[in-house]
Amino acid sequence: MAERPRIGNELKDMKAEPLLPVERKLIGWSLAVGAILLGLLVWVSHTFFPAH
After folding, report:
1. Rounded-to-integer distance, Cα 31 and Cα 25, Å
2. Which of 46, 25, 27 lies closest to 35, judged by CA?
3. How far is CA 19 from CA 22, 24, 26, 43, in A?
4. What is the DSSP string of 2-37?
5. Average pLDDT value over all residues in the chain
6. 2 pLDDT higher than 80
7. Quick one: DSSP state of residue 48?
8. Residue 44, pLDDT above cutoff 70
9. Which of 2, 14, 41, 44 has the fewest CB atoms within 10 Å distance of its CB?
10. Which is more confident, 32 or 9?
């Protein structure tokens, strides 16, 4: 019986593929939106719930 391939071995044998331009844009937009929302959350937190 043939042994089933292991995921680790399959991942090692895969070639590295560069990101597509649309994938780069999506990553950039996601990071930017996340940073903006985090800043908004900090601002709302400090404005409406100040620490005394």
Report:
1. 10
2. 27
3. 8, 6, 11, 34
4. PPPPPHHHHHHHSPP-PPPHHHHHHHHHHHHHHHHH
5. 91
6. no
7. H
8. yes
9. 2
10. 32
